[in-house]
Design goal:
The protein has 770 residues and is an alpha/beta fold. The chain folds into 3 domains: 6-46, no CATH class; 47-61 and 68-99 and 116-400, Alpha-Beta Barrel (TIM Barrel), CATH 3.20.20; 427-769, TIM Barrel (Alpha-Beta Barrel). It contains 28 helices and 24 strands. The chain starts with a strand and ends with a helix. The mean pLDDT is 95. Zn(2+) 2 binds at residue 658. Its EC number is 2.1.1.14. The active site is at 709 (proton donor). Keywords: Amino-acid biosynthesis, Metal-binding, Methionine biosynthesis, Methyltransferase, Transferase, Zinc.
Length: 770
């Protein structure tokens, strides 16, 4: 019999229960014991649900309070020196993830440490905490989460398959700790493997038959030494343990990266949503006992599975291997998908046709079980389900909701001149310097200011019809005035309107565009306790009308300082949505680019001197394999330029990118041709900055001076050093001073303190470098 399995589940809970509990713990409203009770309740409900759905291999150990890679680091003793004085494991864990700043008391010492670096998890919108390794790193197994969670499930009578992050991926994604010469982190593998073996033996002693070892690094373009590391690791693990090992690769194709490890594992998981062609490639490589896990159900998107197509792929695998050597699974962990469509009452009432096209995590487990049942019992056993699925797929293919002839006509006839600014940056900069008259080291923010409870409550009342449009508009204008006055008081040079009317940088604009719809409970984790609710792109995209003009013009009327119009770029609008998969990404992105172009032109016409079009998703959208990069970068950069190229020279175009490794794609970033680019820098090292000098970057740049994901407030001296470091690589005339990202999630006291310090840094630098 084929086995219905899962690789992971949305640990945040059905309605973000984990987020609420974790944040209650951070604010001191609940104790550590109460937090444990809360998260164990979520775990229990998830395990029981998956068992009731009919899954036979249910994951455990993938549940985390902040980040799985951070869990892995702490349980293997990879604790940077700056956190080792924090003795409470839970406080230490959160300090590594988000930083901590506590004043001294009569009984405790002062604690002031920043968070570790955070990066995007492959090409997803999830962020992970980057492990830091020292050349003399020692590893020690301490309170492993996977053992604890396996035992908890077992006590409930639920047998699970423990999930752990693989040793090679863990080391390969890490970096050298600050203060040490760079070294190959994989050189630590001989020290790490015995600790992994110890963990696997503990799991086996607890009763686990299988363990899932996630090695998504297998989809990278790997040099020979990394491929050799995979072989070394799994040859050693296979020799020292007898627990059955399933190595899971996902998000792309493995190609020949598996050749060394394959003889030493019991099962291999493939992402056949991203790389269906690899089924034919890998089948002949398996020995006569190995199991193949088929990732047939998309764990990254929200569209229903084509059950007939998936069943055919499964039948092909079974024909080659037999039913006892095939697992049916999602492409990757379902943690990247919302919980269940059962909560989507509004879509059900307003657009039942769209609802019939959607499948979230709970529904995806049903799809997995349906495919497995079709193989085990025959297609007739699930013929009604398959028929309903085929009808929904045909409905989506032929629906008038998905296609707009006018949008497609415009996108097919874009003039060549619309894809770039008419003059080069040097010419534009002269016009912008004259118009804006900014000081040396101009200060600004990335866009959003804190959204307190008052703003959230007002938005909820407005959405429920409890607050009239006129009253809500007056409330938002009052908030904008407060935010403009705040910027005057702090002393910033280029203002923003603060975005009090926006719930999310993508969802807000989605409401103002045709082709988008919105879930009530479609939450997924972005980082830590931070969740996002991506909109759904189901049809052709066009602008309903002006989107930001009224708010931006009103904010500009309150000050003589230049105001930035704030927009989300076409790649990010697409990437941070659940994007349709029935047309190409190029077509979707071009449609969005045209809609944004109309808004950019309208902002300029309304007198707004600076327009920021954020593209934090360009880097994360980069295909995993380098062979696919050029095509992606060509159309993604072109769509950004399409959205921004319709303005005059004196209008200054800004863009923002966060947590991006620019080294490999720097030429493409430069080709965006933005006048000012702001980037995350507070937790990165100088490797990020050196590329700007190496490539002789000649446009304006703002490297973040403080981490907005942490409540910690850095000192003036600490922020100043960030700019001083940057001055080694860029001329002072091109440098801006700004935070890492938007300030929406921060509180006002820490925001004011951090921005006050930041403005003071600019003043000091002007005096020193004038």
């Amino acid at each position: 019999m084929v086995v219905a399995t899962n690789l992971g589940f949305p640990y945040v809970g059905a309605k973000r229960e984990l987020k609420k509990s974790v944040e209650a713990f951070w604010s001191g409203k609940i104790s550590a014991d109460e937090l444990k009770t809360a998260y164990q309740g979520i775990q229990e409900s998830h395990w029981k649900l998956q068992k009731e759905q009919g899954l036979q291999h249910i994951p455990s150990g993938e549940f985390t309070l902040y980040d799985r890679v951070l869990d892995t680091a702490q349980q293997f003793g990879v604790i940077p020196t700056r956190y080792q004085h924090i003795k409470d494991p839970l406080q230490q864990f959160f300090a590594m993830g988000r930083g901590i700043q506590k004043a001294a008391t009569e009984t405790t010492e002062k604690i002031d440490v920043p968070a570790q670096e955070m990066k995007k998890w492959f090409d997803t919108n999830y962020h992970f905490i980057v492990p830091e390794f020292e050349p003399t790193q020692e590893f020690k197994l301490q309170a492993p989460r996977s053992v604890e969670q396996y035992n908890t499930a077992k006590a409930l009578g639920i047998e699970t398959r423990p999930v752990i992050v693989g040793p090679v991926t863990f080391l390969h994604l890490g970096k050298t700790a600050k203060g040490f010469e760079e070294f190959d982190t994989l050189s630590l593998l001989p020290k790490l493997i015995p600790v992994y073996i110890e963990l696997l033996n503990q799991l086996q002693a607890a009763g686990a038959e299988w363990v899932q070892i996630d090695e998504p690094a297998l989809i990278f373009d790997l040099p020979a030494n990394v491929k050799a590391a995979f072989e070394e690791a799994y040859k050693a693990i296979n020799a020292a343990t007898s627990i059955k090992t399933l190595v899971a690769a996902y998000f792309g194709r493995v190609e020949d990266n598996i050749s060394g490890l394959l003889p030493h594992v019991d099962a291999l998981h493939l992402d056949l949503v991203r790389a269906p062609e690899e089924l034919d490639t890998v089948l002949p490589l398996l020995n006569n006992k190995q199991i193949l896990s088929l990732g047939l159900v998309d764990g990254r998107n929200i569209w229903i599975n084509d059950l007939t197509k998936s069943i055919k792929l499964a039948q092909k695998a079974v024909a080659a291997l037999g039913t006892d050597r095939v697992f049916i699974a999602p492409s990757c962990s379902l943690a990247h998908s919302p919980f269940s469509t059962v909560f989507e009452k509004k879509i059900a009432a307003k657009n039942p046709e769209l609802l019939s096209w959607l499948s979230f995590s709970v529904e995806k487990t049903k799809e997995i079980v349906t495919i497995a049942t079709a193989i085990n019992q025959g297609v007739d056993a699930v013929k009604d389900t398959i028929a309903a699925n085929a009808a929904a797929l045909e409905s989506r293919r032929t629906s008038r909701q998905t296609s707009n002839p006018e949008v497609r006509e415009r996108a097919s006839k874009i003039p060549a001149a619309d894809w770039k600014r008419p003059d080069v940056f040097e010419v534009r900069r002269q016009a912008q310097v004259k118009k804006l008259n900014l000081p040396l080291f101009p200060t600004t923010t990335i866009g959003s200011f804190p959204q307190n409870k008052e703003i959230r409550v007002a938005r909820q009342k407005f959405n429920k019809g409890e607050l009239s449009p006129a009253d809500y508009d007056a409330f938002i204008k009052g908030q904008m005035k407060f935010m403009v006055d705040f910027q005057e008081r702090v002393g910033l040079d280029v203002f923003v309107h603060g975005e009090p009317e926006r719930n999310d940088m993508v969802e807000h604009f989605g409401h103002l565009l045709h082709g988008y719809d919105f879930t009530e409970n479609g939450w997924v984790v972005s980082y830590g306790s931070r969740c996002v609710k991506p909109p759904v792109i189901f049809g052709d995209v066009s602008r309903r009308g002006p989107m930001t003009i009224d708010e931006t013009v009103y904010a500009q009327s309150l000050t003589k300082k230049p105001m930035k119009g704030m927009l989300t770029g076409p790649v990010t609008m697409m990437k941070w949505s659940f994007v349709r998969d029935d047309i190409t990404l190029i077509e979707v992105c071009t449609q969005i680019g045209l809609a944004l172009r109309d808004e950019v032109v309208d902002l300029e016409t309304a007198g707004i001197p600076c327009i920021q079009v954020d593209e934090p998703a360009i880097r994360e959208g980069l295909p995993i394999r380098r062979a696919d990069w050029d095509a992606y970068l060509e159309w993604s950069v072109a769509c950004f330029r399409l959205s921004t190229a319709g303005v005059r020279n004196e209008t200054q175009i800004h863009t923002h990118m966060c947590y991006s490794d620019f080294n490999d794609i720097f030429d493409a970033i430069s080709a965006l041709d933005a006048d000012v680019i702001t980037i995350e820098n507070s937790k990165s090292d100088e490797k990020l900055l050196k590329i700007f000098a190496l490539k002789k970057y000649n446009k304006e740049l703002g490297a973040g001076t403080f981490d907005i994901h942490s409540p910690r407030v850095p000192s003036v001296e600490e922020m100043k050093q960030k700019i001083v470091d940057l001055l080694k690589y860029m001329p002072k005339e091109l440098l801006w001073v700004n935070p890492d990202c938007g300030l929406k999630t921060r509180a006002w006291p820490e925001t004011e303190a951090a921005l006050t310090n930041m403005v003071e840094v600019a003043k000091i630098l002007r005096a020193e470098y004038a």
